[in-house]
Amino acid sequence: MTINERLSAMLVTTVAKHGFDATIERLTASGGDLDSTPPAWATVATVKAVWDNPRRLYKGVNDGAPSSMVQRHMTIAYRADLKDPSSGVGLRVLVDGVYCNVISIGQIGEHVGLRLLLDMGTEA
């Protein structure tokens, strides 16, 4: 059994056991600066996903003031339309009523899965 076949089998088993629904949306039109028009989002897909790690709190400084950002990795099955790291620009994920922006996308194996790094929010 190749590594790719092993990864595929593990992802299928893990998603079946621990998976939850996540809706991926893409920004289709940015909001207006002067007229308060909200941005427009279109659903790309609703997929089964699993969390890769617990939430990680990163502390730092933002404009001279202390701040923190929470990040988390999510794994989904491979999608050709999201395989490039640049395809994560303008994406957000809806999980349990909370929107999280996609920071980056990494590929797992050859056509096995995708690992999304999500911005879970900030605190000032």
How would you describe this structure to a colleague?
This protein is mostly beta strands and 124 residues long. It has a single domain (3-123), classed as Thrombin, subunit H. It has one helix and seven strands, in the order αβββββββ. The chain has a six-stranded antiparallel β-barrel. The longest helix has 16 residues, at 3-18. The termini are far apart. The model has no long low-confidence stretch (mean pLDDT 83).
Q: How many distinct folded domains?
A: 1
Approximately what portion of the residues adopt beta-strand conformation?
Answer: over 45%
Q: Uncertain runs with pLDDT below 50, 5 residues or more?
A: none
Instruction: State the name of the first-level CATH class.
Output: Mainly Beta
Structural class: mainly beta
State the strand order across the main sheet: 1-2-4-7-6-5
Largest sheet: 6 strands, antiparallel, barrel
Instruction: Look up the CATH topology.
Output: Thrombin, subunit H
Apparent shape: globular
State the share of residues found in helices, binned by percent.
Answer: 10-25%
Order of helices and strands: HEEEEEEE
Name of the CATH architecture: Beta Barrel
Terminal Cα span: 49 Å
* Number of separate helices: 1
Rounded to an integer in angstroms, the radius of gyration calculated over CA atoms is 16 Å
Return the average pLDDT rounded to an integer.
83
Write down how many β-strands occur, each being a DSSP E stretch of 2 or more residues: 7
